[in-house]
Amino acid sequence: MDCGGLGGxxxxxxxxxxxGRTNKGVGRLSTITATDxxxxxxxxxxxxxxxxxxxxxxxxxxxxxxxxxxxxxxVDGNGRVQPHRLAEFMRNAVVDYAIPRSKLAAAKARDxxxxxxxxxAELVERAKRSFxxxxxxxxGGEMLLFLLAERFLKLPQILCKMDLxxxxxxxxxxxxxxYAGVMPEGIPKLYWGESKIYKDAGAAIRxxxxxxxxxxxxxxxxxxxxxxxxxxxxxxxxxxDATLTDALKKYFDKSSVMSKRVQYxxxxxxxxxxxxxxKDDVKAIAEEIVEASxxxxxxxxxxxxxxxxxxxxxxxxxxxxxxxxxxxDGFRAAFLRAMGIKTE
Length: 344
Hints:
Layout: H1 35-38, H2 48-51, E1 52-60, E2 66-73, H3 83-91, H4 94-98, H5 101-114, H6 118-129, H7 139-151, E3 157-159, E4 177-182, E5 188-197, H8 201-217, H9 227-236, H10 242-249, E6 263-273, H11 286-310, E7 318-325, H12 328-338
Helix pairs in contact: 3-12, 5-6, 8-11
Protein name: Anti-bacteriophage protein A/HamA C-terminal domain-containing protein
InterPro entries: AbpA_HamA_C
Organism: Bradyrhizobium japonicum
């Protein structure tokens, strides 16, 4: 499966008919392929390797269309696992995640004009304020999903949900993220995102796939869980480049035949407590953590396969990240602390 971006766009070209006359409106949008969206991706992919070790990627389950990718936390030179460093890394990408690309581009342009950092600094504060202070927030998992989708899978986020929140104490109702990919023949893929970080692996897998299922398998009608996001995409999809953004929006306009070409896929993340991380002052050995993760991956994969069947997701294309953690609660607390958020 090609999970690249969208590309091959003919910017403003107009085709001629067989009689040599201009066919107005024809040719303004051609095939969308991987190249065009590459410029929309954010961040340095290699920075992920500082905080997350790849255990396995593209793990398949017979009879299903899922690909499982497993990462565990890295170990530093002193034999320590550093979830707080991971949280700080995530915090530093908060504007990329929470601010629409066009707004960030405009702020960068203004700062360049006036030789300042004022506009971007304002967006940093706005982005941080958009996160909830609820102790059981799932927004850390959603942001980790964003980083892995963009930097590992090369799937750009096309709808910035944090900018749509009207109350920081509430979570946005809809998918945990919306990302774009494309098939080699130019058929766009819309990746609905969902993340769950729980203590128990089975519960995280169960609830994550249960939450993802409606976005992928419900029949098309106005009361589906995905309908609000589709309406927003037709208006709010943002790739910074105005021409490319307008081209993308055509695929979410129900009055356009292009909307019939979109294939729905899923991108999901489950994080959970893993007993193989050392406790207290015991030094961690990276190879041992990787091997323990690899051994447990067979168990997690079996549970994933069972839940995919239960949710009727067997034939849906899903990219699923498994992230074993020293502590799900500890990860959540580290993220809130890095963000400077005091919980009640």
